[in-house]
Amino acid sequence: MRDLDLKTLRLLVAVCDNGNMRDAAAQEHIEPSAISKRIAQLEDTIGTPVLVRGRRGAVPTPAGRALLEHARTLLFTMDRIDADMAAFKGGIKGQVRVVASASAIAETLLDDLAHFMREPLHQDIKVDIEERFSKDIVTMVREGVVSLGVCWGNIDFGGLEHRPYRRDELTLAVPLDHPLAQRDVVSFEETLGYEHVGLQPSTAVYTMLHRAAAKAGRTMSYRVVVSNFDAAFRVVGAGLGISVVPRQVSQIYVSAGQVRIIALSNDWAHRRFAVCFRRQGDLTPAAERLLDFLCQQAAGAEEAATST
């Protein structure tokens, strides 16, 4: 297996994507006979056929499908390596990888990143963002998989450095005809007599709500468990339950007349995000510039809120 080369794997992927060697050859600017020879050498190396060739084209064998999956992963990784290394040439300032919680992404983070990348000073900085659960964010930052993580500020950062980011407020979304719909403020404990629409158990919101319920000597009853806030709003709008959601994310659904938003009186409903990283001195210039920008945006929003 040590004799496998990236070019042959790339050709295998091209054949499987196109369904035949002729189109794959045109795509890769190589003769079909050269592809056929490379695939034959590949099959000799691994000791089993990877393609079934027929009059209508070529399809992968079971072994070929397994190899194809690995090949796609490997080629994707190599492309990312090329992009990262290119970021240090030709005047490009760098590439920053960010992981963030669903709440942070759903609220202001994407807007802040767009603002950052639109500025002429940052035109040569690329940003990759991926959604993960808070506990996974800390792990990925600690292991150096990504430069920056954005998540709740009250989690265990396990020694990571972190700086405050934006604030948000958790509220209660209810159907328009729900018994609580005429209230302006409720406590979370008052909601425990109703069926909730919740997020997955691995999310920070789920953990926090269950701790609050346990502290009150109660349990939560779920009608539906969903994977994101958009789905939660849709289920609430359909009248199937109530849900604890960020206020900022709710505006579009309130405007559409699908749900009503009620303030929660609990102190923990007001929370703050944080940007975490291994050590500021280890950040690349591009990552440090993004960190400073996010913190400046947060400080500006807080100053504006204080002055109103």
Would you mind describing this structure in some detail?
The protein has 308 residues and is an alpha/beta fold. It folds into three domains: 6-86, Arc Repressor Mutant, subunit A; 96-166 and 276-307, 3-Layer(aba) Sandwich (D-Maltodextrin-Binding Protein, domain 2), CATH 3.40.190; 167-270, D-Maltodextrin-Binding Protein, domain 2 (3-Layer(aba) Sandwich), CATH 3.40.190.290. Helix content is 44%, strand content 22%. It has ten helices and twelve strands. The strands form three sheets. Strands 3, 4, 5, 6, 7, 10, 11 and 12 form an eight-stranded mixed sheet that branches. It has a two-stranded antiparallel ribbon with strand order 1-2. Helix 5 (102-118) links the parallel strand 3 (94-100) and strand 4 (125-131). Helix 1 (6-18) crosses helix 2, helix 1 (6-18) packs across helix 4 (62-86) and helix 5 (102-118) crosses helix 10. The longest helix has 25 residues, at 62-86. It starts with 5 loop residues before the first helix and ends with a helix.
